[in-house]
Structures are given as structure tokens and as C-alpha cells.
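Chapter summary example: a protein plus 3-isopropylmalic acid.
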Amino acid sequence: MSATQSNTAKTLYDKLWDAHLVSQRDDGSSLIYIDRHLLHEVTSPQAFEGLALANREPWRLSANIATPDHNVPTVRKERLEGVSGIKDEVSRLQVKTLDDNCAKFNIAEFTINDARQGIVHVVGPEQGLVLPGMTVVCGDSHTATHGALGCLAHGIGTSEVEHVLATQCLVQKKSKNMLIRVDGKLGEGVTAKDVVLAIIAKIGTAGGTGYAIEFAGEVFKNMSMEGRMTVCNMAIEAGARVGMVGVDETTIEYVKGRPYSPTGEQWEQAVEYWNTLHSDEGAHFDAIIELDGSEIAPQVSWGTSPEMVVDVTQNVPTLAQAKDEVQQEAWTRAYEYMGLEQGQPITDIKLDRIFIGSCTNSRIEDLRSAASVIKGRKVADNVKEAIVVAGSGQVKQQAEEEGLDKVFIEAGFEWREPGCSMCLAMNADKLEPKEHCASTSNRNFEGRQGNGGRTHLVSPAMAAAAALAGHFVDVRSF
Ligand SMILES: CC(C)[C@H](C(=O)O)[C@@H](O)C(=O)O
Ligand code: SF4
């Protein structure tokens, strides 16, 4: 590689950044243009209020799309009643306020019982509202999900939501480039979720701080778009606001024919551009992390941070294994909160609830994966509740067409309406104190799924196996 080549070689992040750069300031910050703005009910009310107070209109209406997800009930009976069926007053008000604001400002919204409603990070890609090469923002930290399509996507705060609505631009500081390369072949029963948890176990929850992460290598090349979304979704749990995968045939195939995807000549032009959206050979990364995919086992988080995660075949780590005193303290607190003993086998952990859902793992492939483990078997008696919550109305419909709902229901699962559900305790789906939950979501801090609740992060296949066994089991030998 000649010096000139390596000087001009760009990472995917550099390319996306440069393509959206409006202006650069002396203080190191830049103004970037935003192509797609996703909105939900939690982080938008004050932004709309600010807009109204300043007497401003959204700058580009068609860039915005809204859907309620965090506060919607998932029980069918309540759901059918629409917004008025939301029992909790604060939740009801948030969803109603989103409806009112979207109507007032003329912003497109998939409302509570629209067949396209769902978790904003599931809905965007599935509708073709998020396309390769876009800058995508949302007042939600898991916006990183969309980087799976070769986008520059990250979460923003409420004041930034207002800024984007008003100007379609955002003041940002450029991150450094990190490459996470996973080569080798994943074993049977090892999924995208296990890959990302294994990455977090390796680099820690602060490992990606200050970086935009690009995931590359054989494992991601062979991974479906849905798997890539699962991985990019948790870039934020690895400390990075941005996670990305370069565009390839899998990306283009996924985007093709979606409701809002371009067609005809525009499609041809778009594909030509999208095919340039990968890091150039010789591009400079400030940090490179490598993992061997063939060594990754199904993962289970035992503690109160996504980095407190081990292979299902292992034990809750002992204090002697901690790297320093700070970690010893964190682990001691986590044993206590989680009600676990150090050195206890992971497969000894009994489960009270099972949650298959969230923007990490509620797409059709996730449901298929769980259903294939469950088929013809029954949820264990000690499990009080097992719920499956499709990420969107479209996923739910597709799953029903494939008969997956029946597989779950016959096994003793509840088949719910789409939303964030038990991923966070912002709606009626919650853990009781001390309950252990095998959850396909992305966060496990204290109280995340309900006051005193104990979350264990796993893949859909591992959650399914745990539901049947009543405790964690290695899905590879189940
Ligand atoms: C409510 C929202 C702001 C929050 C986020 O930003 O991630 C939520 O989606 C979460 O997962 O904790
Ligand atoms: S599913 Fe969970 S992580 Fe995703 S947006 Fe909803 S609350 Fe946040």
C-alpha cells in the first residue's frame, strides 16, 4: 500500500461523516445534516413544546416518523382500547401527547393500533424508512441499531430532538474509529446476541467510549441483517454511540422492496452509491479488537451490567477472579442484588419469568429461533410467566402467518402485542422484586425490568431453552 493510498483510504464512518458534513467549527465540533429522524413518546414532548414556544415548524416534515413504543400495553384486550386503554396515567399522557404533537405538526405517525406500529428501531428498517448511507437519529440510545444497514446512526437528547426538528442539523464531535473484527465460524446455537455479549465481556462497557465501532470479519459477513441489528443495537452497551456494518449484498437484499425503499431508476442509483459504503482497504482505525468466532459460546449475564457476562457452561465468577478492587466491589454488590453466590454454576440459576422481545431481539428471525427450540415442548412449572413480544405489528403478523404464535402458545407462552414491554419498567410488564428473568433485551442494571428485578441477558434460543428447563441450560445440548 503506497502512502498516498493509505492517506485517502477512509473508514465507513469517515465516509458517512464527510457526506453529511455541513460545516466545521474551530472548537472541533461540526454541523452534520440528518436524513432520518425517528420519534417516540418518551423523549419528544419537551422538544415539541420548545418548537411551539419558539413558534417554529419542523424543517423537513418528510424526514420524521413517529411511533409510540415504550408505554404501550401489550395485553391484547387493553391494546384494543387504544390510547384510552392505557391504565397508567403518565403512560397514557405520553402516548396521547405524541399523537397530539404529530397531528399538530403534521408528522407521520404509526399510532398505537396501526399495523406498522412497533419499537422504533424495529419499525425504521423494516419499513425502508432507514436506508444505507443515511444519518439517522432518535431520542433513544439504541439508535445505534440502524448502523447495521451501513448508516451513521446514534441516539440524541431531548434538546437535540428539538434542534433536529427545527433545523434538520446537529452539532456533533467526530468520534474515533474502532474496528471489531470477528473471524471464524460461529458454532451451532451461537447467535448474534452471544457475539455482542462476548464482545462486551472482552472490552467492557466503557471499551467503546469515544469511538464509532465498525463490526467486520467473516462472522458479520455471514450474519443476516437482523443479526447485524442485534449487534449494532448493543454498541451502546459497549460504550460507543455508533455501531456499524459495511454495506454488502445482504444489506441490499434486505432493503429491496420495502414500503419506503426507492424503486426504478432511483433504486439503481442508490445501489451504486450504497456499494461504496464500506471501509477502504488500508483505512486507519484508532483501535482494533479481534475475536475468534469459533470460540464464542452461548452467553448469560449474571450481574447488573452487560459486561458481567459468562459462557453458559461457566460459573458466577469468584472475587479471586476480579481484576482489581473496584471490580471486586462491583461484583460483591451484584452478587447481593442478584441473589447469587460466587462460584455458582450458571445452569443452577432458576427462572421466574421469560421475556422474548425488545429492540435487540424481537425480529422475525429471533422469534423463529426461539420457536424452533420450543416446538412441541412445555414451559417449566416453576416459570410464572413467559411472554413473547414481537417488535412490530409487521413482525407479529409474519410470525402468525408462519404459525409461530401457536408454537409459543401451546408451550405456555403468552403472545403479546408489539412494544418495548418488559425491556424496561415503563409499562405494565414488570418483574416483581427478586424475580429472575431470562431476557433477550440489552440492559440489566438494578431495577431495569422492575424494582428489585433480576435480569439475565441471553439470546432468544437461550431464553427459550431456559423457559422449558426452568433454569439456564446450554441450548447446544438441549
Ligand atoms: C426511554 C429512552 C430514552 C431509553 C433510551 O434512550 O435508551 C430507553 O429506550 C432505554 O432503552 O433505556
Ligand atoms: S426495547 Fe428496550 S432498549 Fe429498545 S428502545 Fe425500547 S426500552 Fe429501549
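Key point: The mean pLDDT is 97.
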